[in-house]
Amino acid sequence: MEITTAMVKTLRERTNAGIMECKRALEEADGDLAKAAELLRQKELSKAAKKSDRVAAQGVIDAYIHSNGRYGALVELNCETDFVARTDAFRALVHDLALHIVAKNPTYISPEDISAEVMGALRETFQAEATEDGRQKPADIMEKILSGKLDKYYTDTVLLRQTFVRDEERTIQELLTEAIATLGENIVIRRFARFELGEG
């Protein structure tokens, strides 16, 4: 199938990938836009994984204060070089993260940040909720229930698992992965703090 400039342009707008990357993906997918977009997404994930163990010691700290002055957030976002830290794309990302934190109020950055004690208490609570009717469920069913409740807890409290407030189709992890692929450096959310007026 012939790959037209319009097809390349459409895929580029959809994925933010380079022109030649889009062309190659379309050729590989025989002109199927959805398949080409998925190929590019897989390549982004692969690129991000390769960069994940590189040291990210540069970056910026940014703040977002909601218009009513009652809520605010500080975020430290790290990358590998000062050059990337000064780009508009990086600064926009850290600002979007601060806005997201004000809106969605996460507690942790990743599931690994949740202590063993908290995880144990959560599992006990979820197990008690699952057996409220007094009937013991089979072990495999119980495990599925617990897994579902933990996933819901993660999407409520874990920053990387939350859907991005400005685009509910993407999680914060996906947003970060796209930025790593686009900017070509490892990017890490180091820490954040959310403030609410009058809160102790």
Q: What do you see in this structure?
A:
The chain has three domains: 5-51, Orthogonal Bundle (Helicase, Ruva Protein, domain 3); 58-108 and 158-196, Tetrahydropterin Synthase, Chain A; 115-157. Helix content is 54%, strand content 16%. The model has no long low-confidence stretch (mean pLDDT 86). It is globular, with a radius of gyration of 21 Å. Strand 1 and strand 2 (71-79) form a beta hairpin. By secondary structure, the chain is of the alpha+beta class. The protein has a three-stranded antiparallel sheet with strand order 1-2-5. A two-stranded antiparallel ribbon has the order 3-4.
Q: Count of DSSP helices? A: 8
H/E element string? HHHEEHHHHEEHE
Strand content: 15-25%
Largest sheet: spatial strand order: 1-2-5
Q: Which regions are unreliable across 5 or more consecutive residues at pLDDT < 50?
A: none
CATH topology of the largest domain: Tetrahydropterin Synthase, Chain A
What is the number of strand segments? 5
Average pLDDT: 86
The CATH class assignment of the largest domain is Alpha Beta
Q: What distinguishing features does this structure have?
A:
Tetrahydropterin Synthase, Chain A, alpha+beta, 3 domains, Helicase, Ruva Protein, domain 3, 3-stranded antiparallel sheet, 8 helices, about 200 residues, 5 strands
